Each structure stands twice: as structure tokens, then as C-alpha cells.
Amino acid sequence: MINMEEINNVHGNSSRKCTLNYSVSCNDCRLGTLCFPLALKSDELVKLDSIVQRGMPLQKSEHLFREKDRFSSIYAVRSGVIKTYRLTDDGREQITGLYLPGEIFGMDGISLNAHSCSALALETSAVCEIPFASLEVLSQKVQNLQRHFFQLMSREITEEQQLITLLSKNNAEERIAALMLSISSRNAQRKLSATQFRLPMSRIDIGNYLGLSVETVSRVLGRLQRLKVLFVENREITILDIKALQNLAGVLVAE
Amino acid sequence: MINMEEINNVHGNSSRKCTLNYSVSCNDCRLGTLCFPLALKSDELVKLDSIVQRGMPLQKSEHLFREKDRFSSIYAVRSGVIKTYRLTDDGREQITGLYLPGEIFGMDGISLNAHSCSALALETSAVCEIPFASLEVLSQKVQNLQRHFFQLMSREITEEQQLITLLSKNNAEERIAALMLSISSRNAQRKLSATQFRLPMSRIDIGNYLGLSVETVSRVLGRLQRLKVLFVENREITILDIKALQNLAGVLVAE
DNA sequence: CGTTCCATTGAGATGTGTCAATTCAAGTGG
DNA sequence: CCACTTGAATTGACACATCTCAATGGAACG
After folding, report:
1. If you classify domain B2-146 with CATH, what class do you get?
2. Per-residue pLDDT tens for A98-135?
3. Hey, are the CB atoms on B146 and A164 less than 8 Å from each other?
4. A170-249, which class in CATH?
5. In terms of C-beta density within 10 A (0-12 exposed, 13-18 middle, 19 or more buried), how is residue B13 classed?
6. Is the CB of B134 under 7 A from strand D?
7. Whole-prediction pTM value?
């Protein structure tokens, strides 16, 4: 959020010309160890830095890539929010991931050399592009980088397993509570408030992500408000009783 | 199935002493390109072979590893069936994966250096153990191996995304149809019948895997039988009308 | 300022879960 | 080899969470 405002302030809404220094190096990136929290030594970081490409920010609703696009890079969110989704063959959308600053996505494309999902910005967002071919070569030389990348992918697998469990075993209230806690803890990691934040996605997207209808999402949020667990005002969320929320979630939403 | 019988025939049920050559090299493994369908050149394959450990078969219901166990290796199924599952904090089980011969599992453990799920044999099974430390070192030297391993993990991510979509968007009938098609096509890959096979798991496990109750699984299988799409006799399945099954699934279960 | 999309709320429909009873299959021990 | 035990599978009746449909209100954006 802060990042987004910053960008908007600097170059406005329409003008894509801007003075913000996109080329800030990995070393100086405010996300610090969040993104590639590497055991990378500083000379290794320099090498990584040399292959990272920092592009112009994406506007809201802009696609970064689409399902079936040729795969060439993985991406790190620098600011904003990215959602990834795939289409069922009858054309419905299923959101498969939600990525906040410091988080990496796009690894799904490696296996078939084509993306298995689409990625779009939910708000004005900046991403770092890491060309996979370069990353591969560099991983070949830098053991720590290879290791780190294995870990990143493994983590993606683990998190998807959590989502599978959530979808399979938990009811609407539990799913939504878990999502709130997940966003909260990811905010906390970025030194933002764990109890007060703006939802990065619409009710529609939340429903889609959690396998619920919009109406159910709306009703559950209303109920959590009445229970004085949350304070909800449009997309602004305040967690009033985090303990209660954790009980409702019944899941350990680690991250 | 064939593999299992072979093993049982050779050394019987009780005796764990056996004459079967567990040490068959990757080169000679009947699974051939299924397991590590590598672009590995034959000298590279020799190197891989040198780090693979082939253990005694697991008996039915035996665990290979458990959630939170220290991570040290990934595994390839040589024969039999392995399921992976995690426990929700209220102690319920969620199956997260089902692995048939030639398939690789255990990659979830890399990120935290501890397994995030448990793995157990659904029938007598043999697995190859690939110590991760060695694999890492070897990947460092053999570019093709690193590439292949990235692809394996990416594929796991993609397949989990498919499961997420299935759980989130499809009803009981569609989920079960999709599972039948998945098993069918994976059998076909191993040159087994695509239309006739033995279910590798109980109704309970199917329900668990697909987020359904046992009763629903039973009813849907009954319905598919009445519709003459399947012939079901205990665990023996015959696909009578694969076209209809695909329509019911409404999903492209590629693999 | 109007258009459009998002969100809320209610009423009713329905797929799936739960509970309970029964049958069936497999493995165990006498 | 036959009871016996145990877990798996089936089937029916009923409950209920969530979806669907519909109407309305509200926010956002050009």
C-alpha cells in the first residue's frame, strides 16, 4: 500500500514517465531479506542483482503474463499485489495465488516452459523480473542460490498444500478467518500493521480464491463483525480479537 | 500392481530376506524415462545412479516418513502406491498426494528442512531414495539434472493447482470422474490398461483426497455405474465410456 | 453525474454431510 | 477350515451449510 502510494505520487496516474529509481539494487531494496532472504553473500547478491530486471509498474488489472504464454522469467513483487489464476475449461476463473511485496511467483511455468496460470495486478504494482535462463546459469555457479531456489519452490508446494487442506476440510468461516490471519501475518513480516490493513482483493476474488460465493463471503464478514472479531468497512479491516480469529480459523496459518 | 506381485512372489509375505535385485540401476529400471525422464546423458545417468539408494520394500500401511521428520531425501516410487497426507490441528487427515510408480515425492520438505506431510504405503511398495544433499551437489555439476529437478518441482506446483481448482469449483461427480481419468492416464503412461484397473486407495481415502464424505463417494460410484460409465466391483474399475467420463469431469486431466 | 461494478441482504433451492443400520470383505486365531 | 472380529462399503432418512436468484444500496471511475 505504502509502496503504491509512493509510486502514484511520484508519477501520477496517467503518465508512465517517472523519476522513481526503479533500478534500486537488491542490496538496497527495502524488502531486504524478505524477497531473496538469502544466505547469499554480498558478492553473490551482486551477481543476482545483475540479472534482475526492474520494469515499469503495472497498472491495476494489467496482466504480467497469461496462461500458455511462453515461460521466460519468474517474478518478485516489489510493491502492490499480484493474483494468479487459471481458467477452467468452461471458462470460470480459479485464483491460485495471491502475492504481496517480497513474494515470488511464476515458478509454475518451468515444467512445460509455458505458464500454467495468468498473473495480473490487483492494484498498481511493481515487480522485479528474474530471467529464468540466467537464474539457472547463476544457480549452477552459486550453490547458495540453487539451494535458495529449491527452497522457494518447495515453499510454494507447502503453501498450496495448506490451501488444499483449507478447501477440503474447513467451512466458510474458517476459510475466511484463515485468510485474514494469513494477510495479517504477511503484513507483520513487512513491518506493517498486523491488525489493520486494506484487503488486497474484492469480495468476488476472496470468494473465488476460497471456493465460496460472494454472498457467503459478505455474510461471513458481517457475522465476524457482529461477533466483534473484526471491524469491516469496505476493504478496510481491523482485527479486534486476534485470539478469537485464530480459534475460528482452527488452522495454524504460519508463513 | 505387477511390480508388487513380483516382489511378493519372490520373497513371500513374511520373509524380508529376498533375492530380488533391488540394485537394478536407473539405466536398467523398467520405469525408464518415466521417473527421471531426463534429458540426462548416459554418463550423467550413471552419476545419478550412484547416489540413489534402493531400500527394502515397504509393507502396506508402513510410513516412509512423517510430518516434522527431518528432511533428508526425496523419493521415487518403484512399485506400489504411496499417499502423502497432513494432519489438521484438530487431528483430521488430509491427503495431499497420491504417487504411482515413476512418480517423485517428498519435495515439500526442502523449504524447512523438515517434512510438511507424512508418507505411507497403501500397498507393498518399493521406493528409491535420493539423498537431497547429494542431489544438490550433483545438480551443481550437471546442468541437465538441475534443470530436471526444477521442472519436477514446478510440475508438482502445477498439479497441486489443478487439485485446488478441482476442490474449489467442481462437484462430487466431477471430482470423482477427474480422479478416475487421472489414474487411467497415469496407468496408460506405464503401459498398463487405461480402462481397467484396481483403485489404489479405499473409498475413505478417495473421499479424504477429494474433500468428500465416504458416503458421497460410494453414491457417486454407484451412480456412474448405473449410468454405464463405469463398471465397479469393489476396487476393480472398468471404464465403459471414457468419453462420457471426460464430459462428466469437465476437466482436462492432463498428466 | 451517470454508468458500472461491487457489496449487502433476504428467501428459497439443493448438494453434500451426518447419523444409523446393514452387508460385505479380509484377516486372525482356534 | 471355520467362526470371529474388524474395518470397508453401501444405503436410506434427515439436517444443514452454502449456492442461486433477485432486489437494492453503495462505491468508484470516467
Report:
1. mainly beta
2. 999 999 999 999 999 999 999 999 999 999 999 999 99
3. no
4. mainly alpha
5. exposed
6. no
7. 0.90
